[in-house]
Amino acid sequence: xxxxxxxxxxxxxxxxxxxxxxxxxxxxxxxxxxxxxxxxxxxxxxxxxxxxxxxxxxxxxxxxxxxxxxxxxxxxxxxxxxxxxxxxxxxxxxxxxxxxxxxxxxxxxxxxxxxxxxxxxxxxxxxxxxxxxxxxxxxxxxxxxxxxxxxxxxxxxxxxxxxxxxxxxxxxxxxxxxxxxxxxxxxxxxxxxxxxxxxxxxxxxxxxxxxxxxxxxxxxxxxxxxxxxxxxxxxxxxxxxxxxxxxxxxxxxxxxxxxxxxxxxxxxxxxxxxxxx
Length: 277
Known about the structure:
Elements: H1 9-34, E1 74-77, E2 85-86, E3 96-98, E4 101-103, E5 115-117, E6 124-131, E7 146-150, E8 154-158, E9 193-200, E10 203-204, E11 210-212, E12 215-220, E13 223-230, E14 253-254, E15 262-270
Antiparallel strand pairs: 1-15, 2-5, 3-4, 4-15, 5-14, 6-9, 6-15, 7-8, 7-14, 9-12, 10-11, 12-13
């Protein structure tokens, strides 16, 4: 005869406990999803731990592939035109646009000059890709020399530094005349290289006193080469940089150094580190 299993009091108690625990866990998870209003305050903050009233970050859609602009970025150059750029005289000179890139004019034309963004920026994330000439015709600072001058004056050096001996603070991704990169992450001449730059603008009081230095983080070809490094001031040549009061937002520049350096895929995300509370 087939035996019939009759639940014991012990079995029923275990099942009741498990079901009760699962119910409590589900209720707890639901509560966790929305946050709390009775937890301790964070140090030097108006927010509580897991605060339910704390504003959630806005949603930004990343690019579908590496280097592609996210949804909140301003595209400054997509390979088609220089509508977001100008020179001091308002023109774009003889900067060449073709095959998805822009190229610095050579000194033969004499009509180059720095290319300047029409829009002004303070704190920002900048993505830019550049390429030095494949054919090496010079050495040291004569190989693919250009630069990105944040706020028009805080330079991140552009240079073909692949097997190219030059002074350390003039290497690719150096803070020119100040800080060499942590490592030399340069690719061979003729290969496209990337900079991902996080820039924190300096701050001044009404009397021109420096309250906060400018800082920059640089990834060169995905390799960290500057880690929240401060600037001594406005970049110069053969001189020690110094700060001078300037507006909170300014255009940045691409340098014309008479080398046919190319740029493409340039975009910016405007940031505000002062509101990061």
